[in-house]
Structure prediction request, 62 residues.
Amino acid sequence: MKLVEDDGGVKEVILDEGDSLDIHAEKYHLHANPFDEVSVTFWKASGDITKIIEDIRSSREI
Prediction:
């Protein structure tokens, strides 16, 4: 996981099985799996994420 800091720097976080990470609303981040094994991520959002989902759906190329 790469998290973009407020100063523009990038913090890299490696998550192992069972780890969790809180990402605040509107925090830009990248999720990637650089390894050969399958990676499954469970996302849990709190609050109303309707706007976020709408933005994701509208940005997809159809």
